[in-house]
Amino acid sequence: MRGSNDYRVVVFGAGGVGKSSLVLRFVKGTFRDTYIPTIEDTYRQVISCDKSVCTLQITDTTGSHQFPAMQRLSISKGHAFILVFSVTSKQSLEELKPIYQQIVQIKGSVESIPIMLVGNKCDETQREVESREGEAMAKEWKWTVPRGDGGVTLWGQSRAAPVPTP
């Protein structure tokens, strides 16, 4: 799918962290507050970027560890990655470490690959993960400091080529 303006974006994270809700909010402008487990869904979104049209193929992956071959395939085909955890689950943040390591292992150098760490459910009152913990992981991976947007906090690589946003 890699044309000059086509990008594969892969969304990883534990089950129930809100990956599908984030993707559906971006693609369809809707919000789903009920949990429906995903095996893998792919959405296409055409956006305007840098005075041209870009197509994002967004893969919403399973939160289960039952499909390691699918995970490796998604990483090998991905051009950008979104790693999602819930601030209501410290375990969900910890589960991202091996995923990030697998991205590094499969892709080699990731300095030019856009990777974003997303702390989701920031609007929830029950918290197990403070912003400083997400920030510490981002710094460990040599990423930039966070910026918040509603119920989400984002960290990303500072040296990566930007993924276009609408």
UniProtKB/TrEMBL annotation:
GO terms for biological process: signal transduction. Belongs to the small GTPase superfamily. Di-Ras family. It is a lipid-anchor. SUPFAM superfamilies: P-loop containing nucleoside triphosphate hydrolases. Displays low GTPase activity and exists predominantly in the GTP-bound form. Keywords: Cell membrane, GTP-binding, Lipoprotein, Membrane, Methylation, Nucleotide-binding, Prenylation. Signal peptide: none annotated. This is Uncharacterized protein. It comes from Geospiza parvula. It holds the Pfam family Ras. One of its GO terms (molecular function) is GTPase activity.
